[in-house]
Amino acid sequence: MIIRKMIIFMLFAVTFNCKAERLDEHNSNYSFSGNEYTIYIKSNCPDSLICDKLTGHFINKTKKEDFYLNNGITINIGYDNNLRGFVFTDKNIEYIIRQPSEENIGESDKWILIIHKKGTDYIDSEVNKALFSEVGDIEFLSSVSG
User: Fold this and answer.
1) Residue 18 binned pLDDT confidence (cut-offs 50, 70, 90)
2) Rounded to two decimals, what is the model's pTM?
3) Residues 39, 113 contacting (CB under 8 angstroms)
4) CB of 32 within 8 A of CB of 113?
5) Any residues with CB less than 8 A from the CB of 32 and at least 6 apart, and which?
6) CA neighbor of 91 nearest in space, from 117, 59, 65
C-alpha cells in the first residue's frame, strides 16, 4: 500500500512539473512566430529586458516537435541597454532571435531567427550559411515575474 501511494505521488509530481514549465502566450514575456517556428520566451530575472536567465519553448510547427532551453540571454546594446534580441545555446547549436540589421530594417515587429553551429561566425550577408533562418513576428507580451 505504501509503495502504491509513493508511485501515485511520484506520477502526480511529474505531471505537476510538466504543467508548471509549459510556456505559451499567457505566461511568457515574448513570442516569436515564423512559418516554421513559434518560440515563447520567459525571463527569470527581475528586469525582463536585461536578463541572463531566459527560458525558451521552441515549437517546430513543420516537424511537430518542441523543446525547452533554459540558458538564454538577452542581446542589449547602447548606454540604455536597448533590447535587440535573444540567444539560446544547445550543445553545438545556437539560436538567435533578433532585430534585422540596419540595412534590412523594415517593420519593427519583424525579427529574424537564425540557427547555426556554435562557434561559427556569420555576417548578415551570409545568413544563407546558417543551418536555418526565417523572419517572423515578435510580440512583447505581458510582464511575467520570474
Assistant:
1) very low
2) 0.77
3) yes
4) yes
5) 38, 39, 41, 97, 111, 113, 136, 137, 138, 139
6) 117
